[in-house]
Amino acid sequence: xxxxxxxxxxxxxxxxxxxxxxxxxxxxxxxxxxxxxxxxxxxxxxxxxxxxxxxxxxxxxxxxxxxxxxxxxxxxxxxxxxxxxxxxxxxxxxxxxxxxxxxxxxxxxxxxxxxxxxxxxxxxxxxxxxxxxxxxxxxxxxxxxxxxxxxxxxxxxxxxxxxxxxxxxxxxxxxxxxxxxxxxxxxxxxxxxxxxxxxxxxxxxxxxxxxxxxxxxxxxxxxxxxxxxxxxxxxxxxxxxxxxxxxxxxxxxxxxxxxxxxxxxxxxxxxxxxxxxxxxxxxxxxxxxxxxxxxxxxxxxxxxxxxxxxxxxxxxxxxxxxxxxxxxxxxxxxxxxxxxxxxxxxxxxxxxxxxxxxxxxxxxxxxxxxxxxxxxxxxxxxxxxxxxxxxxxxxxxxxxxxxxxxxxxxxxxxxxxxxxxxxxxxxxxxxxxxxxxxxxxxxxxxxxxxxxxxxxxxxxxxxxx
Length: 465
Prior knowledge:
The protein is α/β, with parallel strands linked by helices.
């Protein structure tokens, strides 16, 4: 192990920055390498004839830049990810590589913005007068749009009465309105998977719900865990994502769905079934709504299977009275879903274009999952072959926060498991989203850089000096 020879970059504006710039330049020039040690701070001060406080500021700044890592009792070392950092900047032109957002990918040969424009042109051409969608709409949605929604949802909820359907401004807005309504009828507690959609926790905190975690395995939430929870606590609501769970990618089997429906009936639980990824499942599975419709709210958004720009989500209420009550909540919070985008989606449903678009996005998801599988083939990656993200459990003694921070330093954004914790964190993992990258080359670059961080044999955690 080499020890750095202290020096100051003379062109730097102040002395402590000169020390940092010297460390950075020596790393770039490979004069020192990851794992090499820096002299003690007092020794650096004496060698450079500067104050000890100046050296301390330099070490803090170098740590902030990700150049060095400090281990209590051992000193400061060149960070193990520094070479990857400079390689990644060269590969990505210094631009961050985003693997943090579950955005649908743009399939090769498709441009969703063009599809939207063409749909609007067709809608306008069908009318001799200004289209109705330029006016305020009913809060629940235009009756024709709700009818088209029932057609799109028919493969998982057959024969829906359109009067049970509301159109919301995205799934998050729908979830807030549903929970606000349930709060008004004296519901006080929510059970959700140990790792769950972060927006749920934020809404629950805002509305002052108690939140309980349900244990999970590779198939998703464990029915027996829910039953035990109901025996120990008063649980009013169960929230779940049945298909390609966010973040764990688990899909509930038909038998497990049946068990959960039975438990929910036994304990009188209200179910919120958030189902954004059903379009990517090869073999349709029974929805919780179809098994337990009198107690279930079903949310189906277009944000994950087409584009978040649409801001269109369909909500199926347990009955017409509940739909009317929810409409009051939606009127207060968001008034109505965007009429033009809702009209576009209805047009796609009517013409069958929505199926073509979602199949193209599904095919792109599959291609990206195959790319990720080839890179992470040595690791216990959890995924669905057509899903938009993967769940990467980390080796023992590796912190999800530390790993995400290491990735951020080399320009790759991911989400640690801590962001998804409902009540307690039982394991360390990260969610890696595959859709934001504009092409396969940039995605491959990001995934390879992430794999480099994962394969680093030894990491030191930072200490605050």
